[in-house]
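Let's sit down with a protein and look at its sequence and fold side by side. Which protein we use is up to you, so please pick one and set it down. Label the sequence line and the structure token line clearly, so we can match residues to local backbone shapes. Go ahead whenever you are ready, and we will take it from there:

***
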Amino acid sequence: MQVPWSTIEALAKTKAIEIIINFPLGMAIQRLLTKSGDIPQDWQVSLDTYFGSKNWHTLVYESKADLFGPTRSKVSASGMNLLEWYRNRLRGIFGNVSTARLVKNTRGNPLYYLIWAGPHKKGLAGAEHILRKGERVKR
């Protein structure tokens, strides 16, 4: 989570650069997303900077009312919601985005997703061929 969205946007504006994103859903992002939605300020700033928007919050948390008033809780599909939202945002600035490919550790636990983005369809075809070796995201 060290590359801010502003850098990704600057690369896309060149119309000459292809990128491969290591989307650290299991390694970093999920660890910062508390079940209750009470996220420390510095974590929230990190997430806002990485995503380039505060809109991620509505994909991760939902508000409900119970006997004790309004409560916030984490949506069960929050990780996949964020992944697809991020891919769509990449598509909006680059034009072409690969299928996200899951990378797991030796115990089979998800670590991160690799995502290619670039301005040319030929690059997308090449990226899909190479990334085909990874596990396909089931949605």
